[in-house]
Amino acid sequence: MTRTVHGVHPTVPLSAAVQAGDFLFLSGQVPFGPDGRLVPGDIAVQTRQVLENIAAVLGKVGASMEDVVKTTVWLTDAADFAAFNSVYREYFPSLQPARSCVVSLLAVDARVEIEAIAHVPASSPGGA
Predict the structure, then answer these.
(1) What is the pLDDT of residue 27?
(2) Which of 36, 88, 32, 42 is nearest to 65 (CA)?
(3) What per-residue confidence (pLDDT) applies to 3?
(4) Which of 38, 47, 61, 125 has the fewest CB atoms within 10 Å, counting from its CB?
(5) Nearest CA-CA partner of 83 in 28, 46, 51
(6) Is 101 noted as a catalytic residue in this protein?
(7) What are the tens digits of pLDDT across the range 24-61?
(8) Catalytic pick from 44, 45, 55, 101?
């Protein structure tokens, strides 16, 4: 099996994504903006930033949100679930990936974290 690392985090020991065969495993994304700072705001603002971050990582390998087959979501407040779902649905309008959702504290002061698995066949333009 071929493993290809796509981007290494500058301060913690993790990769943005690792391609293994036909699957791309994205590390959990939190609402960091392009400047590397946490984007302030409610769950809708932070969810949108996280999903934009996921789309950016996918784009680096020629994949898109349509290639996502599984997500795991962490919310810090169960009361945010409905507002989170409203934004999430914008990014996955027709083919929703399988999903797990957990309510817990996060390692950073954010309201949401999402990790994803995408199917990116090695024969596709972005595949390994």
Answers:
(1) 93
(2) 88
(3) 59
(4) 125
(5) 46
(6) yes
(7) 999 999 999 888 889 999 999 999 999 999 999 999 88
(8) 101
Residues of the chain with pLDDT under 70: 1-13, 123-128
Q: Name the one residue in this structure whose structure tokens are 């784009």.
A: 59
Long-range contacts, stretch 76-83, CB < 8 angstroms, 24+ apart: 76/103, 76/104, 76/105, 76/106, 76/110, 76/111, 76/112, 77/43, 77/103, 77/111, 78/103, 80/43, 80/111, 80/112, 83/42, 83/43, 83/44, 83/47
Q: Please tell me the class of the 3-119 domain.
A: alpha beta
Domain ranges of the chain: 3-119
Classified as helix, coil or strand, 79 is helix
